[in-house]
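REQUEST FORM: STRUCTURE PREDICTION
Request ID: SP-0412
Submitted by: Lab K.M.
Chain count: 1
Length (residues): 317
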Amino acid sequence: MTHRRSRIPLAVALALAWNASSAGARDGVLEINQVCAESTGCVPGDAPGFPVTLSAPGSYTLTSVLQLPDENTVGIEVQADYLTIDLNGFPILGTTVCTTSGGAPSCGPLGTGGGIVDPTQSRAGVEVRNGVVARTGGVGIQLGPRCSIEWMRVISNGSHGVQCGDDARFADNVAHLNGGTGLDAVVGATFVRNVATDNASQGLHATHRTVVLENVVARNENGILVDDAGSVVRNVASENRNDGIEGDHGVSVIGNLTMDNNGHGVRCKDGCQITRNVAYDNTFQQLKLGLDSIYSWNVLVGGTGDASGGVTGTGNN
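STATUS: Completed
RESULT:
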């Protein structure tokens, strides 16, 4: 009887060999750490040195701190769709420092570096969770459409804390003291239970078709900025340098608290619904509304205390 030896394809053999290297793999999860990033490469297709390049869909986890050498270095570069990156409680740290003495933060040195970056912002369906990205020279986390960011702390980055493409989801994150917007997206974003404080630009921002639910925003330029067609519900916006909540067209603002903002409590241009909010002691109008807007059952205290500009009012204000 003739026995045949099974042959493993070369690509599979190389992947198996790599998974047994210093980076390691657990239950199909590929590991990333400082040693493999600098010395061997961490995953198939990744060369030694930063950035760690992720070029295949899969699940990746951090198993040590990643310390970036300067403001122009990227920690992890995303080159594939459908990745999950679990920081496993570890931080990715750069060398930039942001400080504030009560106004907008000042950051330096600034650069092109970032913690987790898709340089084309076109890779879809990437999830990042459970860790810290801090002190990078540019955007802390920069991804493409349908990204999901949860349980992250993005702190003291030279530009935005997080920037994503269309249909992004942000849940349970902290964005603090970044040189741009705390959490920034485009169309179809959802922001739930985030905290954005002391950022140089907006706390939370998206262009349109946006849901903003149960967030806390304080000491940003504007607390929440939704350009068009959004729903802003049960948020707290306080002590922002301009408006607490700002929308352009077709924005529904329901059940929020805006307090001690240095501009308007709620400002919306045209076609807005402003209902059951508390606007307390903001510097300018508590509600500043444009044409074809309706407001009802709001509590307005302090400031100039009016809702002006072609509004239709019903109920108690």
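NOTES: The longest strand covers residues 204-213.
Reviewed by: T.R.
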